[in-house]
Amino acid sequence: MTDTTTLTSASTPTAPTAPTAPTLRANHEATPATIAPAQFRALMSTFPTGVAVVTTGGPEDPPRGLTVSSVSSVSLDPPTLLVCLNRNSRTLESVLERRTFAVNLLHAGARSAATLFASGDPRRFDAVEWANSAEFGGPHLVRDAHAIADCRVSRTLRVGDHEVIFGEIFRVEQDRPEDADPLLYGMRTFASWPAAAA
User: Fold this and answer.
1) What does the H/E/C string look like for the chain?
2) Tally of domains in the chain
3) How confident is the model over 156-171, as pLDDT tens digits?
4) Is the pTM of this model over 0.90?
5) In what residue span(s) does the Flavin reductase like domain sit (predicted)?
6) Residues spanned by the domain of 56
7) Residue 15 lies in a domain
8) Domain annotation covers residue 98
9) What is the pLDDT of residues 64-85, one digit of tens each?
């Protein structure tokens, strides 16, 4: 008698099944758009800061400089600060070429210098008293600064339309800190330290 029994699929040897990878849920949330430049300016205007003029250029070079409020300490060892300069600035071009610069921290009586160096006036150095030396990182605004830090560029970082310049400080000229009367800028206006602290 012929055996017509057939084998069931259960009795058929099969290869082990690989584990199924977990299904990742697609993130359909759109990346939030950045705020408008005017809104960003309005935001930062409520954060008062000191005012400085960053200068560069050797004794035989044409002086360069512009007003900044984006100055920050970075490190005590080595002593390092940073400044942020517009990528279209000729001052930035000179800083990157010379690899040194000076940060002139302005006193309360230097509002006119702050406005002048923010204007882009090509003759701005003719309107202030300044000095330069091979020992400096850049021109010193001798009548408008209560402290000056001479720096060498240690690194740079491009962020949007600005370049962040990190500077190691190799020389400082400073009045007595307790006598300083720094110029401040906030709410789109200048103020002195006592007025802001009152």
Assistant:
1) CCCCCCCCHHHCCCCCCCCCCCCCCCCCCCCCCCCCHHHHHHHHCCCCEECEEEEECCCCCCCEEEEECCEEEEEECCEEEEEEEECCCHHHHHHHHHCEEEEEEEEHHHHHHHHHHHHCCCCHHHHCCEECCCCCCCCEECCCEEEEEEEEEEEEEEECCEEEEEEEEEEEEECCHHHCCEEEEECCEEEEHHHHHC
2) 1
3) 999 999 999 999 999 9
4) no
5) 44-192
6) 38-197
7) no
8) yes
9) 999 999 999 999 999 999 999 9
